[in-house]
Every structure is written in C-alpha cells, then in structure tokens.
Design goal:
366 residues, alpha/beta, Peroxisomal Thiolase, Chain A, domain 1, four-stranded mixed sheet, 10 strands
C-alpha cells in the first residue's frame, strides 16, 4: 500500500494479470467464456468486466466480480473450476485484485451517521445482528490469547516467512509467476534482514501487553493474480503439458470474534468428504498469513508441521492484497508442483466476518 503500485488503479492491475494469464496459457482469447475476479475494497461496479475489456479480451468474454474479502480470490478460482466441471464452459479467467492505495472511503447516507457511529468509515461491516465485528488484528489478538500463541513464536514465524520469500526471490523462484506492472517486476515487500530479534522490537498494535505487531502481521499491499481455468479438452487443444487439477473445495463459518480460525473447519470439511485425505501428506500447503497468530493456531488445530507451510514465504513477507491473495496461492501452488505428476497442494484462508475457504489441487499430466 502506498508503494510502487500506489498510482495503478485496480482495473489496470487486474487487466495486467488477466492479459498475462491468457497469453501464457496459450488459450484463444475468443474461447474465454467469463472472467471471474474478486476484490474486497474495490471501486465498485463490475470490475471484472472492465478488466476483461482493458486486457484486450473480446466483448464476448463476460465478467463477474465477487467479494468474500480475503478468501475471494480463491473462491473465484474454485467457482470457475466448478463451472467447467458442470459443463458451463471450456475456459475461464479467474483471480482477484486489490488496490488498497486507491480504494474509496465509504460515507454513510445523510441521517445514518448515528447508526454507524461516524459519517466516513474505511470498511464495510464484517458481521451484524448482534455478533461481534472485530477488525482482523483484534481477532488475531483474541486467538493468540485464547490459544496461547506466544509472541516469540509469532515473531519466529514472521521472520521465517521473510527469509523464505527473500531466498525464493534471490533464486528466481517467483520469476515465472510474476507479470510486470508499471515497471515493477518483483515484489517490494520482503525484508530479508527482518529476523526474530528485530521483530521483537516492534510494539503491539492492538493493546498494551499484546502480541500482535506490525512485524508478525501481513503487509497491506496492492496486487492482482489470475489463472486460466479450462477443461481437459481445452488444455489439449492448447497443447499444454499438464495442469493443476481441482480436486475439491469447501467453505465454512466460525464465530466472527475468532474469524482467524475460519480455515480450520473449511479444511476439516474436505477431510470429512474424503477420509483418505490427509493435509499432512500433501506436497505443498499454502495458508494466507494475515497474522502469524491465526496461522499458527490453525496449524495447531489441524496438527500440521508449521515448517512445511508456505515454503516460499507468505503474506507476512509478500504482502496481502486482500481480494487477490487466495488466487496468488493457487498460482504459487501451480509452480511449486508443476511437472510432478500426482503431486498435491492445499490452499486455504481465514476470512473477515468468520468464514473459511479451502481447496485441494493435484498436478495432472495432459
């Protein structure tokens, strides 16, 4: 946020990745049935339609914009997968975008100031009807306190995320997945020198004596991510060597007070549908790192090895463009298992308001 992409509108960010995804997949743009994009704080209107046209897709490619906050990008991809599976179309572009730098402030209608407490406000409510509606940092602090996630553990996890992202960038691991925008060809967020000792110097952001800090939280970021979702027949026509197949996906809800735990029941729903599925056995696991506290609590609840999570770093290091993060997970999973026939991946996110989304993937040769 307010970084190198601060002057790039959400429509243009989205158009850049839509165009790149179609070109790299080698799919005929005229075959794209729909463009499904998520955004959490977008400018309004049908952003996906505008992005499709700005990307140079023909007018026959429709557009649909959805909002499930920071789970929306993953939802957009799995929705496109379900549409292909249902036979609704052969090729879709799906993903998400966020321009936190240019997102509009909201204003209450005249006479409604009392109901909202103020005339201008930065976000829509996450919950209503008598439920607690905490900001994500407040929820992370609650999760940390109730689950006993120590400050030192959160800082160590955050430092590892930065170290992994910096190492991956130095090795060129991100090169294939990035699309340059406004002259920026690399992520600007990773801080390779931010070790646990430096993390420990940051003050708590929610309350005195708390454990959630700017260092062990994700960085608000501008960004976009997109993939092409196609049928097996379309993939063969595009002469692709293989792809990331959608195995299953699930959503679930939790008390908004502890919204950071939403990924837990979503992953458990996948297990209930396939008892043979074990998250511990997949080759790559990617959870949205909105806050180290909630990721670590999720890892504990699912009995996962935290060292296996986000092998190339996550949102703490790479930034968290809310509507795009879930789609970026899928892009990263694609490149992490590419060419390894049968290799599996799990992506998941906890979402503001008390929602969780999760999806299973498997690499399949053409």
């Amino acid at each position: 946020m307010d970084g190198p992409l601060a002057g790039v509108h959400a429509d243009d960010l989205a158009a850049a990745v839509v165009r790149a995804a179609v070109e790299r997949a080698g799919v005929d743009a005229a075959a794209v049935a729909d463009v499904v994009l998520a955004t959490a704080t977008g400018p309004g209107g049908n952003l996906a339609r505008r992005a499709a046209l700005a990307a140079g897709l023909p007018s026959t490619a429709a557009g649909m914009t959805l909002d499930r906050q920071c789970g929306g990008g993953l939802d957009a991809v799995t929705l496109a997968c379900r549409l292909v599976e249902a036979g609704a179309g052969d090729a879709y572009v799906a993903g998400g975008v966020e321009s936190a730098s240019t997102s509009p402030m909201r204003a209450a209608a005249a006479g409604d100031e009392g109901a909202r407490g103020r005339r201008f406000f930065p976000r829509a409510p996450f919950a209503a009807g008598g439920w607690d509606d905490p900001g994500m940092a407040f929820s992370a602090e609650t999760v940390a306190a109730e689950r006993g996630i120590a400050r030192e553990r959160q800082d160590a996890y955050a430092a590892r995320s930065h170290a992994r992202a910096a190492a991956a960038a130095a090795a060129g691991a991100f090169d294939a997945e990035l699309a340059p925008v406004a002259g920026l060809g690399a992520d600007a967020c990773p801080r390779p020198r931010l070790d646990a000792a430096r993390c420990a110097r940051f003050p708590p952001v929610v309350r005195s004596g708390g454990t959630v800090t700017a260092a062990n939280s994700s960085q608000i970021a501008d960004g976009a991510a997109a993939v092409v979702v196609m049928s097996a027949g379309a993939a063969r026509r595009a002469d692709l060597a293989g792809g990331l197949a959608h195995v299953d996906s699930a959503v679930a809800g939790v008390d908004p007070r502890v919204c950071g735990l939403g990924a837990v029941p979503a992953v458990r729903a996948l297990i209930e549908r396939d008892p043979a599925f074990s998250p511990s056995a997949v080759e790559t696991v990617a959870f949205t790192e909105a806050f180290a506290a909630q990721v670590l609590a999720t890892v504990d609840d699912l009995r996962l090895d935290e060292d296996r999570l986000n092998p190339r770093g996550g949102a703490i290091a790479l930034g968290h463009p809310w509507g795009a993060s879930g789609a970026a997970q899928v892009v990263r999973a694609f490149y992490e298992v590419r060419g390894r026939d049968g290799a599996t991946a799990l992506t998941a996110a906890a979402v503001a308001g008390g929602v969780g989304v999760a999806a299973r993937w498997r690499w399949e040769a053409a």
